[in-house]
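REQUEST FORM: STRUCTURE PREDICTION
Request ID: SP-0412
Submitted by: Lab K.M.
Chain count: 1
Length (residues): 261
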Amino acid sequence: MGLIYSNLAVFLSYFQDNVVQYCVLIKHSIHGDNYPIDNYFESNTMKLLHIDSSILAGNSVSRALTHQIVEQWRASHPATSVDYLDLAVNAPSHLDTNSIGFRAPPQASALTPRQIEENAISEKLVSQFLAADVVVIGAPLYNFGIPTQLRAWIDRIAQPGRTFGYNDKGPFGLAGGKTVVIASSRGGVYSTSEGGRAMEHQESYLQTVLGFLGVTDVRFVRAEGVAMGEVAKSAALATAAVEIRALTQTAANQAQAQIAA
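STATUS: Completed
RESULT:
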């Protein structure tokens, strides 16, 4: 019984408001499971991948939004670990004959040193994506689409057998069960008219490609009209701040993770 009380005391000091997690530890203690506290914290850590793609550094609206999203997410989910990827600084090259190797059949001829190097980059990126429970992506609108460095990242993680596959009924995604929050920034306003929506290939593309990979929980935080004067920009950022608070409370896989624990 001393071990039970000791475990509960430590647990309550870290999670005073999370009744579900109290119950999980009580379950293990009552059944006499050999379940150290440190292992409990590790197994319940939520992994968040934070990606920025804007080239504007400190002047970027999307970077400011992803920072707010990550900070709010960590406030709502204290056991979150964060991995950061800045595609404006460290972007993979666009697909070519050297970097397409992950799509080659197993019986393909031996790879060159350059192809091996590019395959390692693709493997690192797709493994990082698949390991994440939550992905926060900064996606500014550039020339009616997404930045090319963000597209290069997508081309590296869209891998048959890893994030999608095909059967006799067509394609199916393999990367489900995660939440993706996209910080969408736009100089103009595109969401309020049919013509504007037809012009943007940013949110619509990301929704489509992530759905193809099996991600069904895609959430958008939008700040548009940010180039239309300070009043419009301030209003857009204020609206985005409200959306951030609303969208960072629950992850798609949170219930499943708690049940599995």
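NOTES: Strands lie at 46-52, 80-86, 134-140, 164-167, 170-173, 179-186, 217-224.
Reviewed by: T.R.
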